[in-house]
Amino acid sequence: MMKANTRQIEGVTIVDLNGRITLGEGSVVLRDTVRNLLADDRKKILLNLADVTYIDSSGIGELVSAYTQVKNQGGDLKLLNLTKKVHDLLQITKLYTVFEIADDEAKAIKSFSN
Amino acid sequence: MGFYGDRQSGMREQPRMNLTRVSYTLDSTLESVNKAEQAVTDIGRKARLSEDEIGGLSMAVREAAVNAVLHGNRYDPTKRVVLSLEASADAITVSVRDEGTGFNAQAVPDPLAPENLLKQSGRGIFLIRTFMDEVNFRDLSPGTEITMIKYLHKGENKEDASR
Fold it and tell me: How far apart are CA B7 and CA A34, in angstroms?
C-alpha cells in the first residue's frame, strides 16, 4: 500500500510518496493528501516520486488531477526524482512537458519562490 | 484460445509441454486486477522476458483487467472476468473477457491530443496499444473480449514500444 509523508521546507510542502500509485488505494492516498494540503492552504507542492515503483493509468490520471487542482487554486505542483519507469511513462503519455520535473530537491524548492 | 472450463472464482493452472496455457475466472474486483497483473508477470518471467518487457506486458494486462472490472462489469458481483494467457516460443497472447454492455475502442479520444492531455482518464487503451504488438477487440454481445499479443523475438516485426 502506498504511503505519503509530508515535510515543509521554506514554504514548500514535499510529499514523499512510497509504493504504487494505482487504481484503488494508491490513487486515493494521493488524492486525499493533495486535497488536505489545499484545504490547509499549502499550495506549493513538490511530489517526491523516488520511491514510487509503479504507476498505472489511474495513477497518471490522479497526478494530472492533482496538478490541475493545485494550479486552479493559484498554486504549483512539481515532480521530483522520477524513476526510469515513471519517467518513460510520462514521456509516452506526453505529460513530461506538462509537469515541471526536477531531480535536485534544493533547486526544486528554490524554483517555487520565483 | 484458453481453457474456459473453470467457472469458479480463483486460479487454476493448465500447463502444457512447451506451450503454457492458463485461464482464470475472476470476480469483478480490484483484487482480480492485481491477480491478472501477477499472473502475466509470472508468465513473462517464465518466458525470460526482460524486466522492461515484463513491465510493459503487465501494465497492458492490468489496464485491460481494470477496463473489464470497472468499465465492463462495473464491479457487479454476479459478473465474471475471464483471463486467458498463452505463452508459446514466439509470443505471449493474453485475452480478457468481460460481461459488460460492450465498448467501442474507436470511440476513445486520443489521449495525446493537446485538448485531452490534462484529462483524468482515457489512457488505458493507449497504454495497451503502446506495450503490446497486436491488440484486437471483439464484441461478444453481451461483453467484450480484448486479445493482446506480445511477440518474443524483438525487432523482427514490431515497432519499438519505448518510443
Answer: 42
